[in-house]
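User: Could you write out the 3D structure of this protein bound to heme C? I've included everything you need below.
Assistant: Certainly. Input first, then the structure.
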Amino acid sequence: MSMKWVIVALATTMLAGPALAAGPAAGGPDQATVEANKNKKEWMSQGGEREEALTLKPNKDNGRDVYEVCSACHMPEGWGLVDGTFPQLAGQHRSVIIKQLADIRDGHRDNPTMYPFALPSEIGGTQAIADVSEYIAGLKMNPQNGQGEGTDLELGAKLYKDNCVRCHGEAGEGDAAKFYPRIQAQHYEYLIRQYRWIKEGKRRNSNPEMVEQIKNFTDKDTKAVLDYVSRLKPPADLVAPAGWKNPDFQ
Ligand code: HEC
Ligand code: HEC
């Protein structure tokens, strides 16, 4: 089955569900804007849904309803998959989730798998972004994320300290005010994929200062530093007990 049909099949299943919260598609980028942005490399766009969503008062109940469609891939707990196909979202800074969703919706970040499910016609307008990001940010994190091989952690620690701490923080906690993502305890394979795409310019909404910082990293460096990152521990109060199931979707 081609990816297209997987998506169509998934979409049909989801649309049949009673709890889909597709309100009137107020807000959201128009098609011309999306097409124009697909040619851009831009880390921080001006205006648009990111800025607007940050000014809206979030409704967490609606956020939970919106999240139902997301849970098909990111899992009910927001933990993604250990193999990195789907990233962990739980515990991510709300500002970062808002930025990434806005970037995906308006063409600044390519995500063909997810794009059809994130459209205003599917989940609602800018308010839906404000709501679902509030819900996701409050989910407790996976205590057993995917990690690397553990063979080069000393090198990883040194590279991390010299190249990453100034933005992602001592423990990979990121910085909500600056839209720097939390990367601690993210699945190793997802970290590897994003890191390579950022380095190669395939992730067009990446931060140019980070691209500059990592341009001389070898494959060995990349694996070592991201193995180290995957083992960084979030504060205990952000982490769920092993085996926790999200009661909102039982
Ligand atoms: C069909 C599967 C699928 C669905 C449904 C889906 N996503 Fe995703 N999502 C993905 C994939 C795959 C990625 C990673 C893409 C990549 O590697 O660049 C992703 C990435 C993301 C990211 C970026 C994470 C990061 O670390 O930068 C956010 C935020 C996100 N999704 C939120 C959502 C929300 C909110 C919904 C529901 C409205 C949703 N997703 C629905 C597949 C999906
Ligand atoms: C100048 C600040 C800066 C530096 C230095 C930096 N980063 Fe980043 N990093 C960012 C920002 C900002 C993003 C999010 C970009 C976006 O919005 O798409 C990011 C994204 C990432 C991502 C993708 C996260 C996700 O959830 O999709 C990974 C992985 C990452 N950085 C790892 C690192 C590592 C490892 C280092 C050090 C070797 C590093 N970064 C150095 C600012 C930085």
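The chain has twelve helices and no strands.
User: Perfect, thank you.
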